[in-house]
Design goal:
Layout lengths: L18 H11 L5 E4 L2 H4 L3 H13 L3 E4 L4 E2 L5
Parallel strand pairs: 1-2
Antiparallel strand pairs: 2-3
């Protein structure tokens, strides 16, 4: 495990305003992380556009995202 990334009391905000989320993305782009495990899609990103944007960006960097509640692993999807 690399770290725990959690943004407190940021419901409904964009990803760029979530400091720990942006730190997570940066660490992934730097090659420090190869897998993200999160409880659900709603905990990962606050809206559909951010979810798609960052899942695509992470996949391009060979970083998988596992959404536990939805049983989704982005590296095994086509």
């Amino acid at each position: 495990m690399a770290d725990i990334y959690a943004d407190e009391a940021t419901t409904g905000t964009t990803a760029t305003k979530r400091a720990d989320f942006m730190r997570l993305i940066s660490d992934c782009q730097n090659g420090d992380i190869d897998m993200i495990i999160t409880k659900s899609i709603s905990r990962f990103a606050r809206n559909t556009l951010d979810t798609l944007k960052y899942v695509i960006l992470l996949k391009e960097n060979n970083v998988g995202v596992v959404f536990e509640e939805e049983n989704i692993d982005t590296l095994t999807m086509d």
